[in-house]
Amino acid sequence: MNASPVYQIYQWLSDMNTWWLNTHIDGGWVMWGSMGIVAVLVLSLLPLRMGVYRPSARVSRSVPLRSVSPTASRSVSPYHAFLRQFFWTIVAGAVGWAIAWLLSDVIVAFGVSLGRKITLRVALGSALIGFALVSVRIHRSWRRVLAVLLVPAAILLSALQINAVYGQYPTVRTLLGVEHFERASSFPVVNSSITDYLSSSSSVPSRGRINSVDIPATTSHFRARTAVVYLPPAVLGKKVPDMPVLLVLSGQPGNPDTFFTAGQIGALADAYAKTHHGLAPVIVSPDQLGARFHNTLCANTRPYGNAETYLTQDVIRWIESTLPVTKDHTKWGLAGFSQGGTCSVQLGPTYPQLFSHIIDVSGELSPNAGSESTMIQDYFGGDKAVYEAHIPQNAFAKYASSSFASTEIPQHTIILAAGELDPLAQRNEVAISRFAAKAGWSVSSVLAKKSGHDWQTVRAVMRYGLDIFGYETGLSSSVEAKLGGQILNKPKLSDYPDLQPLPEAAQTQNPQKEVR
Fold this sequence. Notes:
alpha/beta; Rossmann fold; two-stranded antiparallel ribbon; 11 strands; 45% helix
């Protein structure tokens, strides 16, 4: 039976909407099209022939010729017009670069360093705007219209290029915050151990499953957005083993699905599972923000509610009761990027009974939502002690006095990472590595080559981080037993071409206290 015309139109509109939402804005035709439009506008505004006039050359026909000054009727040669364009383009670009550098690396207005790639793109956008504005002064008629149009085109191109560097919004869907993954109606139930799973011959999918899910805020009443869950192939067959757990927290601004869309953590986990007989951690990305631009400090605060209770009670309880995971929290980890990285080094040492492994990518030395006095007053009701308890240095110091730090071999591990083009994050991670090492943690400090405070750094680090996490939580040793005793050594940093040791952090490594 043929579908009605109305239904066909509806289906066509639905398909177009899906195509539009899934359109990549970090590259592809959108980026190239924007570059092409800007290039055409710039070429059209170059003074390639005579007849380019100053604005003052507009003379009304009703005015006698003798009343017009010689300067008003004098045309500007293409050569001089080009020199003016060139001069003001360079000036505007330099001003844009200087402002970006001052805000990023001197004032640190954003709490993080933007990095060289971003400041250069800001400079390029400023240069194009300077070129457009001087062209408005030089040209007349339709060329002046083109010069005006170049301003929004330059701003759009700069925004697209900056986003491409960060990798924050790969598609229109992610930019608009539209839900990316299907909702889960149910989850597998544990009915096997990892050993039994490996000894069975049951088949599993080649890739894991990613779903959106709402995690109830039963205790905290925190207004959390939809979380995202990754299930490895091993739990999608008849035998469902209990798997290690890795919680991941995106930065701010951000969404719970950003670790999957920009960070591609699902694809990285699938790649890990492919070489480990379908085994990989269950990955959960809960919402620690409540809204894209909120900064809850991962604490219980007056303006944003009980984010800390949500993460450490509601989310933990839901994972344990709903997902196919181990209840052994020595096989649980917490990872985060930027603000999420700061949360990981706040919550990890504060709740060592929950998280035994931390991966902090480009985190900060302390919660950052304004000045210290503002945060103490507005977020913690004037209680300075509560604020200071959320500073990572103090959290590690508290851990050092706990029973977890009394063993000869560290029970907790941490990977600290920053991008090569992010000097501020490097300094932060070096400092945190010292706090963690002093508290008795097993520390690895790494540098992602040729990237900055962006999701390229996250992807490079998390590939290494998943391998280390799998090794520390016994997934590698389980596969080793499956292979008949073949030794799978601990991953070496030298095997990851995009990474290298973080400078000045080597002194914090303690080989006597390195796990396994």
